[in-house]
Amino acid sequence: MNNQRCVTQADASALAHLSDYLERGSEVECEWADQLQDLIATAFILPAGVRDESYVALHTTVTYSAPGAKDSHSVKIVTPADADPGRGMISVVTPIGMALIGRKLSEIVDVSLPANRSEKIAIRDLAFDDNNAANDVSLQNAKA
User: Fold this and answer.
1) For the chain, what is the domain count?
2) In terms of residue numbers, what domain contains 122?
3) Is the dihedral of CA 54, 55, 58, 59 positive or negative?
4) Whole-model pTM?
């Protein structure tokens, strides 16, 4: 299984700004900042204006389930300022948001939960919000 994350240059920039902001906060926020910095440092960053629709990006609606399960859940990955869990919009700096960002469609990922627990989830489908990626060229469309 390839664990390489892939993020757009715009997402890498947004995550870096978010990390800078979180570093000035509480100890928990500093831990999220460290995780974001690690993600950016190890991810493959696409060229400016390009996105790969087989990877989870900010403003992507992700449908996931436990591996092998029939029931699924959908969430939209957003920045903390846009988060609204009641509407299915979760922050990238939550356990599930951090587990999903930059991951590939069909990948099975570990979600780190409180109390040193973890849960595996499988990414089943991705839907992109084109209003937030209007200037990006999709690699899927470019291949057609």
Assistant:
1) 1
2) 6-130
3) positive
4) 0.85
